[in-house]
Amino acid sequence: MYERRVRLRRRRGRVAVAVAIAVVLALGGAGGAYLLLRTTGSPRQAAAAYLTAWQHGDYPAMTADSVHTPPGGLAGPMSAVAHQLGVRHLNLALGRVSTGAGGAQAAFSAAAGLASGQTWRYQGRLRLVTSDRRWRVEWAPSAIYPALKSGQRFGLRAVWPPRGQVLAADGTVLSSPAAVSRSGSIALLTGVVAAATPAQAKALGAPYPAGDLIGEGGVEQAYQARLAGRPALSIMIEGPGSRVDATVARFAATPGQPVRTSIEMRVQLAAAAAVRSAATTKPVDVVAIQPSTGRVLAVVERPGGFDRALAGIFPPGSTFKIVTASALARTGMRPGSTVRCPSRVDIGGRIFHNYDYERFGTTTLRTAFAVSCNTTFAMLATERLTGATLGSMARTFGFNVAPQLGIPATLGHFAEPRTSVDMAADAFGQGTDLVNPLSEAGMAGAIEAGAWRPPQLVVSPAPRQPVPAQPLSPAILNTLRPMMRAVVTVGTASHVGFPPGVYGKTGTAEYGSGPNPPSHAWFVGYRGDLAFAVLVEGGGVGADQSGPIANAFLRRL
Q1: Same domain, residue pair 418 and 464
Q2: Which domain holds residue 399?
Q3: Parallel, antiparallel, or unpaired: how do β-strands 87-100 and 66-67 relate?
Q4: Same-domain pairing of 132 and 196
């Protein structure tokens, strides 16, 4: 028994010695295993962190996770590559990670979305080593793309296909010189195609060099990528002196696609002819829309330049009484409601008066609207409305909505009045409320269609609209329609001579300061499924200046 116990102890001792020798060999003789035991993290974790930083453009983090980087870090070379290729977005995915005696290798896939519209997909790899007890990427140009070496750069060669066209609703090519020659205002909507400046080429990114044809303004600029299409593109690796060392990818061209607008040439040309024949020398702006859809049918300006009809901003004057009267209709007022129309009225210590200090005594809401009695609406608004109720009505007519026409535009601006003076001024369009012909045409069209609809210009591809249609109650429609008709038949525009079936509202909107400030002349209205707004900037009285232009426009249709 004693001898058996001795043999057992000896056997256990030999096993312990063997284990000890194995550990010593593992720690001392097998250096790779020693490093794995003493290094923080893993090669996969290090590669994943590096690729995440690269995808997000976090070049300082990439530098921290690398060795053998350039003296200034990786921001310089990585930014240069992104610029050379015109990278707009980058997706990177980590693949298989393998380890060996010399370190580790991490495969990854890259999908680089380029400014040209194409996506370059390729397979790359990272070499990882340990430094300061951490796994890091051993950086070299090949970490960006396997075939890229020191002293080389990427180059692009692009051949652009035929450009898409900007079309009217009937297929007329609005972007053609022939269309612009018939109505110069079309160029405000379409923009032009011109040679890119160095600054524009830089903003667009490779493969656009200075001198390439690009869209400037309007639809041509807003839909540049769609209209230009995608070029036949070659991605090359270039050495010193722009020597092509290799072509690493080729893409076929994709022709540009058209952009269709809602412009109807028949309506556009009628508006253009009416403005061209106008007696006034003041600037004139006209917008026509289809109330049932919100589609913009015509935009005309004289002179051209800044697109005032869609993006300008002006006081509305008495055209805003459409909004105020609609809010009053919500309180129960109707065309036959009895109202007062004195020549002047004191509200909150401020005197408000009618044009030429006219007075109509006790009358109806219909008459006060038709003759555009300022004092009536100033008093009714302060007596029956609040800033919130008037603001709610303005929003129903599209005020403070950001339109999505496909090109830059704006709609009416309305800030809720907080004092009786502000309320009185806003009620007849001489407060802080602001509009342009686009918003005014939509306001008039809402009465015809029974709902305000967001305006549309580009219909294919159609932008997503910010708000749905805003319906108006029967009480509002039954109040406003006869009152807008009365403006044309017995009111301020009765002398214009409009054709049958026209509904409207005049506006004389003062701006500036002094005892006799200048004023803009407005006429807004509708006839059937056509709504319009005419503005003569600084023109004076709306019925005398804008009314005849609107009449000429309608009679040319």
Answers
A1: yes
A2: 312-523
A3: unpaired
A4: no
